[in-house]
Amino acid sequence: MAEPLDAPSYIQHHLEHWELTTRFGTFNLDTLLFSWLTGITFLLLFRIVVKRATIETPGFWQNFVELLYEFVQTQVKETFHGRSALIGPLALTIFIWVFLMNLMDLLPVDLIPRVVGYFGVHYMKSVPTTDPNLTLGMSISVFLLIIFYSIKIKGMGGFLKEITCKPFGPWFLPINLILKLVEELAKPISLGLRLFGNLYAGELIFILIGLLGYWQWILGFPWAIFHILVITIQAFIFMMLTIVYLSLAHEDH
Amino acid sequence: MDINATLIGQMITFALFVWFTMKYVWPELEKILKARQQKVAEGLAAAERGHKELEISQKYAIQHIHEARSRAVEALEQAKKQAALIIEQAKAEANREREQIVALGHGEVDLERRKAREELQQELIDLTIASSEKLLGRVMTEKDHQELLEVGMMIDSSRKG
After folding, report:
1. Given CB atoms, is A36 within the 8 Å cutoff of chain B?
2. Tens of pLDDT along A177-200?
3. ipTM of model
4. DSSP alpha helices (H): ranges in chain B?
5. CB-based contacts of B78, cutoff 8 Å, min separation 6
6. What is the mean pLDDT of the segment spanning A197-216?
7. Distance between CA atoms of residues A174 and A180, nearest Å
8. Would an 8 Å CB–CB cutoff place A223 in contact with chain B?
């Protein structure tokens, strides 16, 4: 806002992570911090609610949690036909956690950086999903699960056969392998980058609106409204694609 | 914006969160919803059962009322019959008693008459003897008695014949 910075350095400032370099590598502390905060908020809320849950007279929070549970459960049941103790909790975690991290985007872009600025932290990105480290971390985890379940369900032989002998038969093994590799690798990359791209672009527009002085009040509001849709849809898409990919991994061809 | 160690950190975080949900959130929710489903189903079944029971007991009650009514009518009829019977019996008893009393009366009258007749007979005999003794001018002997009796019997038989 009224910072003594020109536009490029204002934007640059907002796109810089709060970093910590150790001998294990560099960590984006802001991403870790806010992802933990949102994740723990989600888990604690749900844990407390299910601990206090009653069968007869659910209160507001229990209804809310049950609503989300049933929503996710329905999505899983409609898409995924195998039996798995993991996929339901996985989908629920993804949906709520990603939604909460996206929700950080609706906080005013300067609020958190300004507050932590007083404590001597000069760079702070408060939306963890605008960090590809996070989105790719999640999508790679999903990718590992895809491979794990492919091998678990089809066996090592079946898995190898699927990546070498399809779609053109065993005589075209290299082509099959390359095609399959591209197909499979496209999953985690597109999954991670889609979320990152949407949220990064959204955040960037908030930053640009933040540059407009008093106009930001007029422009920020509709963009925030629109963004409520975007963050929900992105959380939903990430969850849905995870379910779809895992159900594909469970299907025996 | 470059990829660094955060990625590994996020993968671990993600795994932990999913593990937590899987262990402490999802199964509990599943349990609660299942329990509620069962409870609702049970409640509906109970309501259905109650409905049926009500119907049955209503039928039962109606049947009972009918039965009671018919039994009451029956009892009333029987009571009437019994009353009639008792009256009849009482009448018969009274009749019998009257007859007895009348018979007793008749018997007494007979007895009195017989007694009177016997007395008359005795008197007649005494008179006969007395008059006979006067006629004879002496006390009657055993023989006289015999003769008198024979005469008397002759008169008697001639009267009868």
Report:
1. yes
2. 898 889 889 999 999 999 999 999
3. 0.87
4. 6-20, 26-136, 142-160
5. none
6. 87
7. 10
8. no
